[in-house]
Amino acid sequence: VQLQASGGGLVQAGGSLRLACALSGRTFRRDTVGWFRQGPGKAREFVAAVFRGHTTYYQDSVKGRFTMSNDNAKNTVHLQMSSLEPEDSAVYYCAASTSLILSTLRSASAYQYWGQGTLVTVSS
Question: Is residue 122 pLDDT above 90, yes or no?
Fold first, then answer.
């Protein structure tokens, strides 16, 4: 199983980026796929996830600005990020779990598979 994250880069505050996570090795349609981020000197934090392929959850600070979507035909998930703020700067990771329960959705330790991360830098 492999997850490959891409799409990071440097953007000015207020700008947009679209991250992609390509999943291979199994079909993740009914699994939980999420995005986490880790800023400098900070703990890894939950950003968004699609729970078992049907319900999307977001961290409060990104609601209304970030949108997560699935492309099941391509086994890819996207994270569309708009109105970016310097505080959004971090390495973004995609992760997946075949057995996660809803109460652990926001916990990084609940995810079995991880991508390598893609760096997002938002300048002020």
Answer: yes
